[in-house]
């Protein structure tokens, strides 16, 4: 029997009790008033169950009760496992522009760009002052010697500088080195004593002039001079060209032996070529 049938049976039993109760109560009341009589009855068999009754309608919703007190906070549960990474969401809105950062380090220089177009001609500048004297090549020297009787077949070191315009004479080697091509003048005035003197002017290892002076027992002076063309890096010096003919004498007290030279004029063609190269 299902729950609906059980409920129906209970309802019929209740209704039967309600209907029979007046009759039973009436009989009992009549029994008290009337003379007693013997009643002999046997209970009948129970009747068939009635039809199930209809479900009653739900009652009205009760009023909302007051809010209860807050319960005790429960303990924090264990941390769950890290879930899988979700799909990337759509890009958000552009945020506000931040402040400019500090400047970075200077990068390496880039490749040379293409040559640009020729610019317009600029305004005429102020005329300058010509310092023509500073453009003129200058070379001149004069040197003496402080020791007598130098060795043969080697440059004589005139080590006492009297004048050296341009610094083209080297007293450590005894050589003049040409810096500007052009026409040069060289001369020498040599005091000799006790020996003969065979001396010559040399250019790049070749004798340009030679002089020979014999000693007669007294002091004498040998001199010579020449004009020559020199190219840049040409070398000029003096040397004794014959064995044991080195009577060159020097005494700081009363006798000097000198070697001198200077540029007469420079090679104009050479300097014109230089000017074209610079231009």
Automatic annotation (TrEMBL):
The keyword Secreted applies. One of its GO terms (cellular component) is collagen trimer. SUPFAM superfamilies: TNF-like. Its main location: secreted. It is found in: Secreted, Extracellular space, Extracellular matrix. Residues 41-129 are annotated as: Disordered. Residues 52-72 have a biased composition (Basic and acidic residues). Residues 134-270 form the C1q domain. Residues 98-107 have a biased composition (Gly residues). Residues 1-26 form the signal peptide. Keywords: Collagen, Extracellular matrix, Secreted, Signal. It holds the Pfam family Collagen. InterPro entries: C1q_dom (IPR001073), Collagen (IPR008160), Collagen/C1q_domain (IPR050392), Tumour_necrosis_fac-like_dom (IPR008983). This is C1q domain-containing protein. The lineage of its organism: Eukaryota, Metazoa, Chordata, Craniata, Vertebrata. The gene is C1QTNF7.
């Amino acid at each position: 029997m299902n729950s609906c049938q059980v409920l129906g049976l209970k309802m019929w039993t209740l209704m039967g009790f309600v209907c029979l109760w007046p009759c039973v109560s009436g009989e009992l009341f009549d029994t008290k008033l009337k003379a007693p009589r013997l009643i002999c009855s046997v209970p009948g068999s129970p009747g068939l169950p009635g039809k199930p009754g209809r479900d009653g309608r739900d009652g009205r919703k009760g009023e909302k009760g007051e809010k209860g007190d807050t319960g005790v906070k429960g303990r924090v549960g264990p941390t769950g496992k890290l879930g899988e990474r979700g799909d990337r969401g759509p890009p958000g809105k552009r945020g506000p522009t931040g402040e400019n950062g500090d400047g970075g380090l200077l990068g390496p220089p880039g490749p040379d760009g293409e040559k640009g177009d020729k610019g317009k001609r600029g305004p005429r500048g102020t005329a300058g002052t010509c310092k023509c004297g500073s453009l003129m090549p200058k070379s001149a020297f004069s040197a003496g010697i402080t020791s007598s009787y130098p060795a043969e077949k080697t440059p004589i070191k005139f080590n006492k500088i009297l004048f050296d315009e341009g610094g083209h004479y080297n007293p450590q080697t005894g050589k003049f080195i040409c810096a500007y091509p052009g026409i040069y003048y060289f001369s020498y005035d040599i005091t000799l004593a006790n020996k003969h003197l065979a001396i010559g002017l040399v250019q790049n290892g070749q004798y340009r002039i030679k002089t020979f002076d014999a000693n007669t027992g007294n002091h004498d002076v040998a001199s010579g001079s020449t004009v020559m063309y020199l190219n840049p890096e040409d070398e000029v010096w003096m040397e004794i060209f014959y064995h044991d003919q080195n009577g060159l004498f020097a005494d700081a007290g009363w006798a000097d032996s000198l070697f001198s030279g200077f540029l007469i004029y420079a090679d104009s063609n050479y300097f014109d070529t230089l000017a074209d190269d610079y231009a």
